From TrEMBL, chain B:
It is a multi-pass membrane protein. The chain crosses the membrane at residues 45-64, 106-130, 142-163, 175-196, 217-239, 279-296. It comes from the Bacteria. GO terms for biological process: transmembrane transport. One of its GO terms (cellular component) is plasma membrane. Its main location: membrane. It comes from Streptomyces antimycoticus. It is found in: Cell membrane. Belongs to the binding-protein-dependent transport system permease family. This is Sugar ABC transporter permease. CDD domains: TM_PBP2.
Amino acid sequence: MASVSTPSRQAAAGSRRAGSRWAAATDRRRSPGGAGWLFATPFLVFFTLFLLVPIGIGLWMSFTDASLTGHGDGVFVGLDNYTEAFGDSQVWQTLGNTVWFTVLTTVPLVIVALVMALLVYTGMPGQWLWRLAFFASHLLPVAVVFQIWSMLFQPDRGMLNSVLQTFGMDGIAWLTDEKYAMWSIGLVTLWWTVGFNFLLYLAALQAIPDHLYEAAALDGAGAWRRLWSVTLPQLRRTTALIAVLQVMASLKVFDQIYLLTKGGPNGATRPILEYIYDTGFTNYRLGYASAVSYVFFGIIIILSLAQLKIFSRRED
Amino acid sequence: MTTETLSPRTPGKPRSTMPREVVRRRRYGGHAWHPTLGTGPLPRVLTLLALALMTVIWLVPFGWGVDTSFKTEVDASASGADWIPKAGFTLDAYRTILGQGNLPVWAVNSVVIAVCVTAITVTISAMAAYAFSRTLFRGRRVLFAVTIASIMVPPQILIVPLFRQMLAMNLVDTYAAVILPQVVAPAMVFILKKFFDGIPRELEEAARIDGAGSFRVFWSVVLPLSRPILAAVAIFVFINTWNNFLWPFISTSDPQLMTLPVGLSTVKDSTGLRNAQESAASILGSIPLLIVFMLFQRQIVRSVATTGLGGQ
């Protein structure tokens, strides 16, 4: 990810320079090598046990026919799971749904968050209330989001359709019509998660140095001009980071879809993580589920590297 | 980038060259202009209207949930958008839910799990970050590179092998199964290391000359200087753990071990005939974190701002 690797390279370069001087100063008195291991060990133990080992187990399982019901670890089947995955129409459909969801949600989740932050940043009285209103929904557990929106979405007696009917429109089968289901999920997701991006934007706005605005004002720039020529250009880097994070987060969608539609109607909203879950934990095919996980992982890695490349080029 | 605002070397944004009075008036919405707002009353009124409209839109769904929780079941499943129920408001739904449900158990589980995960994550991440930032053990560069690279691994793709591992370790349906996989947070190690890198080495060297060992330096010099970033990381981890759904959902099937998000998702039936009770349970399940947010808004906002971009 862009956010991670660029600063880390700088940090690493910086600490190497400072580190050698410091090392020379301290090495004479003590060698802190042993202490370093002592400090790093607890993290490294957990890191190995619950990240590296599962990555290895998953990779191994993806080459076997391991199942949740069978004993032992399954029989080695070579690349069979991967061949099956690439020919599996469900993999392609759920992958397509995931990408569609990502496209559908990323743009509004960035733009609405930016609008909210710009409005709040104007310094209107009631900061506490605005921040609470826009961010609080992000703090709700997914089950609460599910409860509230399944009431609002109810086709025959729900609130949204009652409102539509008062305006003389027909009610919509929000979650049960293939045409609308993903849009409804997108709406819920926007409402639920936009507050996070809003806070990131608000922090970025507050970090813009005052003197830029002062210089612009002295040059006779009006409010719109300052917005276009100072604020938005200053936010470019933040926008890039938020967009990258949002794409990554949207690709991993599962919770709200699983609860609201179970992937229906007719598989129209089923994301790939739900396919992995269904394959592994409902159909007990752990080996195949692992293979699909790794295909998905590969796609995420490729997308991350592509984004990294695009954004690092733009920054030059 | 946002971590810089908390770095001990950067005291925030560059100081303004404008007279203090102007800055003050501008910040607090006096008569002077605002960076993103014109002079005159019209932009202010329009901004306020836009803010109020968006706030209402964002609060209505939650408000509807609260409203429903105070209705009788008949009114709660009635058609339409009546905010004032025909049979009047009632606390019946809350009484029923608190009398029969597992809600208190789930709340306790959520607290135990979120507190454990946060405590362990902050402790081991801070120690590792200190090791990577300030000590010279063999292999430190490779290990740090591996840690950074692993930020790219989405935990969601590991659910299958992790579950298999929990079966093998005989941990399924225990607190340990829910907690342990959640304490690995390479992004938090990265954030903390970046912060530790910014702490002046002179302070540490002074302590070492006074005879302090590595642990002493960590405990009495580095940690006290890092309180804001430690708080930011802790808040971020706590909220994420509290609301985490997928892993607790997979690793627990015993209702006595479920967290709030998982437990609440199991009580909903599809008929909509228990809307009031289900809403009451939902409201009770959201209250803890909402109260925490109202009390610590400033810290939470800062936590998201400092850890959000690097910590996902």
